[in-house]
Amino acid sequence: MNHDIAPLEIHVHGDVPIKPGTDIKAIQEALKPLWHYAGARSLHEGAVSLYEEEPGIRFDATTHRLNLCWTVRGDEDFRMVMDDLCMNINDLSAAGTQIEVTFYDTEFDDEDEANGSESRDDFVMLFVGPDPGAIMQAQRDLLVHDVINMMERHFDGAELSGVVTEIDKLFSQRFDSLVSSLELGKPPRGSGGSSGHGSSGGGRRPRHLH
User: Which pLDDT value is given to residue 90?
Assistant: First the structure.
C-alpha cells in the first residue's frame, strides 16, 4: 500500500541489550521487517523516523544496545511485522526486555470522538529475550513494578512482599507449563498485552508514550 496515505501512524519503542560480538550486518538483517515495511532498501535508509525529534533506529556497538524510537505510516498489516521482528531480535538479545508498539489512527478526529465513534488506536506490549526464562523474567519485573507502584498509593512498600511472592508463584507455574518456544515474544496470556481502543477508558492514548 502507499504508506504516505496510510490510516495509521505506528510508533515502535524499546531499548534492547544485544549479545556482544553482534555486528551491524546481523542487526540490519534482524530489523529488516521494520525497514522493509517502511519501503527502504537498507537499515541506514529506513532507520529515520517519521518525526525528526525521534532518534529512530540506532545500534550502539560500544554499549551493545539497540534503541528503537521510530514511527512509520502503515496499517493493520504491521501486526505481522511485529511477530517477525520479535523472532529475529530473540536470536540477538542478551537479556529479556519489552518493546512497545503504539497504533495511532490519523483519520480519527474530534468530530468522530464527539459522535461516539471508536478510533483504531491500540497499544501492544511485546517481550523479547534469548530464552523463555529471560522473557518471563522481563514480564515478571514489569508486572511487579506496575503493581507495586499502584499499591504504594495505599500501602507502605514493606507491606507488599507477599504480593511479590504471589506474582513469582504465578510466573513459576507459567514457566513450568511452557511447552513451546512459539510463545516467545508475544504478550503473556491474560495480561492485557493489547489495550482497549480509541475513545474507551476516558479518551485517546497519547501519540507517544515516552
Answer: 96
